[in-house]
Amino acid sequence: MFGRMSKSYDVVVVGGGPAGLAAALGALESGISRVLIVEREPEAGGILRQCIHSGFGLHHFKEELTGPEYAERFITKVIDRDIDVVPQSYVTGLAVDSEGTRLVRVLSERGGLSTIECRSVVLAMGCRERTRGAVRIPGSRPSGICTAGLAQKLVNLDGYLPGERAVILGSGDIGLIMARRLTLEGCKVEGVFELMPYSNGLTRNVVQCLSDFDIPLHLSTTVAMIHGRDRLEAVTVAPVDEAGQPILEKGWDVPCDTLLLSIGLIPENELSLNLGIELDVVTGGPVVTSTMATSLPGVFACGNVLHVHDLVDFVTEEALRAGRFAGEYARHIRRPQDTISLVPGQNVRYCLPHTLSPDRTHTIYLRTKKKLQPCLLKVGDLLERKLRFVVPAEMIHLTIKPELLERFYEDRLQIDLIPLTE
Predict the structure, then answer these.
(1) By CB neighbour count within 10 A (0-12 exposed, 13-18 middle, 19+ buried), where does 135 fall?
(2) Structure confidence by residue, pLDDT tens digits, 121-150
(3) N or C terminus of the chain: which is more exposed, having fewer CB within 10 Å?
(4) What is the pLDDT of residues 198-215, one digit of tens each?
């Protein structure tokens, strides 16, 4: 139940967002009975609580829900299944005793510093937004500059409008959604400016949030200078060259009092680093096996802490699997060792999981490095699929069945996206 915490569990889940909630339910499906969710916010649900727009659940529930509605369904299941959730709490460390029991250190508002015994741990801490410091925009430091996610919280949860005239840097999904949200609240959105030659958000969000509201999207363009003393007064925007550097002589000033930054998300892996878990340099998340196990025995990872997803439905699917495998580990069930390394090839930025086992069906996630239209998805000599188009903003996922892997005798399986000419 909420606020209750015992001394011993089968599985401890770090994070109470969509990944953590699904992982806890997945762990119960494996046959265990004692699960704890540690959540740093006052309530479970994660980022979904402030995502009041619709578009969630189309894959998992086969119906369209808002973010709070999607979260509510999982929170209700967690309550019904008697899973303990301790809010306003943090996991500060993890150790293993001589008998192999994992000792999780939890700092909570109510209980202070506690040590919880468990058999396995699931990391589901989500991700955080990049800030102005990550892109080093020149100029002054006035008020009126914030991330798109913070603006979403201010408007949807706190009831504050961040400004009256806004510019949005970056075309991530949260930035696109906030362009529409601010417009509906009476704020004038001057435009969305994207450094890359393509949008970094879902195509449906470009159409529904920008095109439908006549908000301009400027590709290969960035904010080159910030103006203002106490409050933001204007920004200078400019097109960029092939190296991504602004061409200042072609720039122009845009008066505004608000600048929202939608310039990417970073998996929240400070705890993973402190635990010495191996991280993927491309995704920023842990290296995982086909059971979602990290390099630290008994510790699993899923959701945006592993790699940034574009749909919460995929987060749920991945987290349910991670929870089930963590539950199996807690029951001392060990799957066959992975024997195949999954390798990103031509035009593939990354693919997950990092290794496969031929004993079961696998769901593989990957992203392209650039827009391809059309292309051939090639998985070694096992599978080929023609795709009409792929873009970096939209994750590709495919299923590989064990009958294909059973006749694969190499230790490396490469995935390629090969351009085709029509």
Answers:
(1) middle
(2) 999 999 999 999 888 899 999 999 999 999
(3) C
(4) 899 888 999 999 999 999
